[in-house]
Amino acid sequence: VREFDTQLKVFRELTVDSVLIDDAETAASEIDRVLNSALRYKRPVYIELPRDIVALPIKPYRALRRETEGSEAETLKEALAEATAIINKSKSPS
Q: Hey, which of 11, 16, 36, 50 would disulfide with 46, CB 3.0 to 4.6 Å?
């Protein structure tokens, strides 16, 4: 390993989100942010915990709040109309 952050640099290229947890104050929120990226994009993430921080206590934190995006109304309406048309044109829509 040439530099301390070599692994993080590699995983930034391979994942949708990555983080180096180096501060106990922000650890919980940073972990939540990266986990939300994994859930939202359904792609891998990378969380690096240096040995010297693994056992540090962190502030009590709320449960993971999933960030969700709503569907765009017009796009949803068009998709529904298209699906309805396909079903109505089928020979046996049951």
A: 11
**How far is it, in rounded angstroms, from Cα 50 to Cα 93?**
57
The alpha carbons of the chain give a radius of gyration, in whole angstroms, of 21
CA dist 58 and 28 (Å) reads 7
Q: What is the number of alpha carbons within 13 Å of residue 12 lying toward its C-beta?
A: 7
Task: Decide: pTM greater than 0.70.
Answer: no
Q: Please, what are the domains in the chain?
A: 6-89 (3.40.50.970)
- Which two tokens mark 58? 């962190």
pLDDT tens across the length of the chain (94 residues): 567 788 888 989 999 999 999 999 899 889 999 999 999 899 999 999 998 888 888 876 777 777 766 677 888 899 999 999 999 898 876 6
